[in-house]
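Quick start: what a row looks like.
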Amino acid sequence: MSQFRYHPVIEGLKVNEDGTEIYLDGSLLPIKVHQLKHTIKPRRIVNIGLKQVTVIRLVCDCWHGLALTGEHAARRIDENKGDHYTNLYWGKKGMNKSSAAYTNIKRRKLSEEQFFDIEKRQKTELLKDIVKDYGITEMTFYRHKKKYYGAKEEEN
């Protein structure tokens, strides 16, 4: 038997722990599956009044509380484990596994030795592969180059 929780804002709306059953004022709401062109997995949505709301947002609202700010969206920890509340969290919009890799980079500086080593390797390798080895971004490399060695100046 699944557990239900009421939505903190919408009166009479209750959602079970994995979002398979959503009731509004005692009547079961139909869950629609909507496939976006740019996504692999379809998203499940529910119509509440004149608005479409995703099921994972409703589950996150009911089980984890409302989002802190408008910058947050409901996210899955593991895409393959479904919409159970234990697999959901509030994450910043635009964040995904590939972009989260760059948020963990702590170092933003290069030593002179590292800079020249990168420049040597750049003749035979792609810059994006080299900077991954150093734990920096391409922008860090270009900023270092501009700051210490200046932009290319045109001769008159």
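That is the whole record. The radius of gyration is 24 Å. The chain has two domains: 4-98, 105-149.
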